[in-house]
Amino acid sequence: MNVSELLRLLQAEHDETAARADHLREQIVRLTTGLAETEARLGELTATRKVIDGLTPPDHATASAETATVYQRIVTTFDEHPGKVFRVRDLHEHLGLPTDEPSINVTRSRLGRLVRQGLLEHPGRGRYQKRT
Predict the structure, then answer these.
(1) How far is the C-alpha of 71 from the C-alpha of 87, rounded, in Å?
(2) Is the pLDDT of residue 8 over 70?
């Protein structure tokens, strides 16, 4: 290998490395810009959350906890009876929940959400069971 060939290879490697460095610098600029935009949006969301929390009545937190508890009770019931098919009204009676139509409709909506999440199956109209 002669000196001119060695210099040509060295120049080729230098050019490739310089191009890679330029590419990495461009990525850093894009990532830095993206990070700044994302952090700004995060700040907006945090401020919005604080405003909404300040406007929300104190009993809202209790309602959310109650909803989570009802969901957990529903899932637990289906876990305890994996092969059983429940009608919404039967599920309400089993859980000791009110059996008025508005309450039944809320539970029907919750069961639909659990079906969409893949936790339950909907084998027939008004019937639900644990997905196997």
Answers:
(1) 16
(2) yes
